[in-house]
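Sequence, please.
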């Protein structure tokens, strides 16, 4: 059986348990499970299983992909390696549409968020999944924009989880 479902749940639990992070509605950096409705207040947030939180954007609706490889016959423990890739995005949004944005400050804040997420994956053994796994944050894309709704900087990234069973 694939671990794709366990990986998404494990990432959500791991990210939300990190210091300063929370489930939607809590105090702190909110971690969303895919595309959800957010309020109009400026915020810093993380989305697991999507590239954007905004449903009206041209969003790819793939929450995760998996690639499994069987190495030997007959099947033995350790003979299957599965890599699950989960798209995520972290965003810092000021909500201030007046004046000129200070993207350097926003990038610095976002870098701290990304460092905290990476640290969380390193300190939570196996994302709580009972398997021999490695977790890697990979393929980063940095975006920054200034709109009527304020300045925002976001980092799209993939979390790759390789499990052997």
């Amino acid at each position: 059986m694939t671990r794709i479902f366990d990986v998404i749940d494990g990432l959500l639990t791991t990210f939300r348990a990190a210091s300063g992070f929370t489930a939607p509605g809590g105090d702190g950096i909110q971690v969303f499970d895919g595309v959800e409705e957010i309020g109009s207040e400026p915020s810093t947030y993380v989305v697991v299983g999507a590239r954007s939180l905004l449903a009206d954007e041209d969003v790819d609706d793939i929450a995760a992909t998996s690639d499994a490889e069987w190495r030997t016959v007959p099947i033995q423990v350790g003979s299957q390696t599965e890599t699950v890739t989960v798209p995520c995005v972290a965003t810092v949004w000021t909500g201030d549409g007046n004046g000129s944005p200070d993207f350097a400050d926003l990038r610095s804040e976002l870098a701290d968020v990304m460092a905290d997420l990476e640290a969380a994956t390193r300190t939570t053994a196996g994302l709580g999944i009972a398997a021999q796994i490695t977790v890697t944050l990979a393929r980063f894309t940095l975006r920054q924009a200034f709109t009527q709704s304020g300045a925002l900087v976001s980092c799209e990234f993939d979390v790759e989880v390789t499990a052997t069973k």
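The longest helix spans residues 103-123.
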